Amino acid sequence: MSQLELSQRTLTLHRFPRMQEENPLQAWDAADEYLLQQTLPVPEQGPLLVFNDSFGALACALDRPLYSISDSWISQQATRQNLRDNQLDEDRVVMLDSLAPLPAAPACVLIKIPRALALLEHQLRQLREVATPETVIIAGARAKEIHNSTLQLFERILGPTKTSLAWKKARLIYSTYAAPALKPQPETLSWPLEGTPWQIHNYPNVFSRSGLDIGARFFMQHLPDNIDGEIVDLGCGNGVIGLLALEMNPLAEVHFFDESWMAVASSRLNVERNRPQDMARSHFQVANALSGFPSDRLHAVLCNPPFHQQSAITDHIAWQMFRDARRCLQYGGELRIVGNRHLDYHRKMKKLFGNCTLVASNKKFVVLRSVKLR
C-alpha cells in the first residue's frame, strides 16, 4: 500500500494485480506528481483527456470528469480499483482503449509518455485529429526518458513544443497544436514471417512489432500438435504462436489472450489475413492472464511470459499466468512456455504442478512443459 498526498487529501493507491511483497512497488512516480502541480482549464471549457495513467494516480487525484485512454486492461482495472478504494466516483472517469475514437475539442490533455515511441506517435496522431489551438497539452516522464527524438515527435505531429526544468528527476513537455504538414502512415506495421506464406501485422504497442523475437522463434519449433480440444496463446502479442497452433492442431479451438487491446487486435487481424478459414475456431479476449475463463477446461496453454510491468522488473506476471493456467487446464492438460534460462521458471512450474519437463534448450532459452495431474 502506498499513499499520494495532494493538497488536503491523501489517496491510498495500489498497483494491479495487487502486489504480495512486503515492500510493494509504488503506484505512481514523480512525473505524475509534476503533472498534478499544473494549472488546468476548468471543466466547462471542454473534455480532459488522460493518456497512459498506469494505475489511476491521475484519475484519482484530478477530482473532475475525464477520459482515461490506455492500451492496458490492467491499468484500467487498477484505475477502477483505486477509485473504489478511495471512495471516489467511478462514473466520472470514462475508460477508452487505445483504438477507440477520442472526444472532440479537448480543453486539456495530460500524457504519461509510454516506453514505446510507436505508441506515443499513434496517440499524438489520434490527438491531432481532435485537438484545437486552445487545447492545453502537457506530457510527463522521468527526465532520462525524454530525448530529442521525443520532442521532435511532438513538434512534427502537433506543433511548437518546449520542456520544463527537471523536478525530482522528472520533466514535462508543453505542446501547442498548430496543424503542421504531416504525411499519413499505415495504422499497422507488417513483415513476412519466415518459413511461412504469412504477412504479420502489428499495431504500435505490440511487443517486437518490427520482427519475430528470438524467444518466439525458438518456441515455434517446439509446439504441441494434433490436439483435439482448446488451446490458449497466453500473452499472445501479435498472435504468431496461436497462428502456428491453428495450423498444427486443425481440430483445436485457439484462444488469444492479452492485456493489450492492440495485441489482441493484431492477433485478430493476423488470423483474418493469414488463416481466414480458421476464424470460426479462433477466439480473442483482452484480460489479465486468464481472468474470467472457466476452470478445468483447456487442453494446452502456450506462453512466452513477460518479466516486466512498465519499467519495473518483476516475476509476478509470470506467476499469475502459471497459476491461471493450472486453474483453467483440465487434468492431463499441459502448460508449455519459453523463457530465458536465467529466470528459473522451472522452479515455479514444479511448485505449482508437481512436475516440469525440459522440452528443448539452447544457449539463451528453455522450453518447459508441466502437466496438470490429479
UniProtKB/TrEMBL annotation:
Annotated RlmG N-terminal domain residues: 1-177
Lineage top rank: taxon: Bacteria
A GO MF term: nucleic acid binding
PROSITE patterns: N6_MTASE
Pfam families: MTS (PF05175), RLMG_N (PF26049)
Top EC category: transferase
Name recorded for this polypeptide: Ribosomal RNA large subunit methyltransferase G
Organism: Mixta tenebrionis
Name of the coding gene: rlmG
